[in-house]
Amino acid sequence: MRASMTIPTQDNKTEERTMKKWLPAVLAIFAVLSMGAPTLAGDTAICYNCPPMWADWASQLKAIQENLGITMPHDNKNSGQTLSQLIAEKDNPVADVAYYGVSFGIKAKEADVVAPYKPAHWDEIPQGLKDPDGYWFTIHFGTIGFFVNKDALGETPVPRSWEDLLKPEYKGMIGFLDPTSAFVGYASAVSANLALGGSLDDFDPGIEFFKKLKANDPIVPKQTSYARVISGEIPILFDYDFNAYRGKYKDKANIEFVIPAEGSIVVPYVMSLVKDAPHPEEGKKVLDFIMSDKGQAVWANAFLRPVRAGTLSQEAAAKFLPDSEYERAHPIDYKKMAEVQDTFRDRYLAEVR
């Protein structure tokens, strides 16, 4: 019995030629798929709370890309949102590193969502400005004050004190970030409270101040509001010196920074490696770079005081207010500041909002 044969038809031959034409491409696709779906793990790190409009993170992210080849997407969370997200994702982390105000760094360690890591130049970070095991560490400082758009004020004088802000002439002109969520908002509340006679155990003066301030219809956003000051939408914002200097010297706006007459505080911002981060090695490289001469210089050129003091150039330092003005701004017990944050938040929500 002879085996049967299929005689190629014209249609069969056309199909064969088509298959031969596309076979290399099909094989190439299968080769890629056999290695798994392409990932960004080798050249991407995720940072929570790295907004380009805040503290010139735009330049830092660009420097990281240029020097490390690591891409870090923009992220517009605030400190409180960052901590909440880290806790929500504790069993399946998304971020590799996190940036926040110091009290949130302390709380992140307590919540067991960050990992110990001692970055490059660890020994140059002063004691008290880092967790002993590296769960968080300071990268730069800011001083709380008034970020003022003088053009937006018109004929209204620049305020010089916390008490000035209670005057009716500033109605509708004052803004501060939500102190129950954004760290700069909480730091501003602590600053006002201490300047007006309170303590970290007594928030009565600060709560009373914010209750009175409600009469002036303050604007209370949750996210960084740099652009809203530059545009004049918010003429006076409780904020850090570095944002005001950026507005004045880089964006050429008619900006003045005021350290209130009653006093203010100096505040560190910190970073952490996220526990069980999806890209831990990239995260570590990013943290090392931020602490390097190049990384610290980015902060210095953005008018922040880098934690490694020697990286602040004379040119940048010359644009700050005189040292005599900064004598009214003081460091505080940051651990205590973290411990009483929930107490302040609960009182603010109950008595002010």
Question: Could you characterize what this model shows?
Answer:
The protein is α/β, with parallel strands linked by helices and 353 residues long. It folds into two domains: 47-141 and 267-324, Periplasmic binding protein-like II (D-Maltodextrin-Binding Protein, domain 2); 143-266 and 337-351, D-Maltodextrin-Binding Protein, domain 2 (3-Layer(aba) Sandwich), CATH 3.40.190.10. Helices cover 40% and strands 14% of the residues. The chain contains 15 helices and ten strands. It has helices at residues 10-34, 57-68, 79-88, 102-110, 150-153, 183-195, 204-213, 226-230, 241-249, 280-290, 293-301, 314-317, 323-326, 334-339, 341-351; strands spanning 47-48, 97-101, 114-115, 137-149, 174-175, 236-240, 255-258, 264-274, 305-306, 329-330. It is globular. The relative contact order is 0.17. The model is unreliable at 1-42 (pLDDT under 50).
Q: Can you tag this structure with a few keywords?
A:
10 strands; 40% helix; 10-stranded mixed β-sheet; 2 domains; disordered N terminus; D-Maltodextrin-Binding Protein, domain 2; 353 residues; alpha/beta
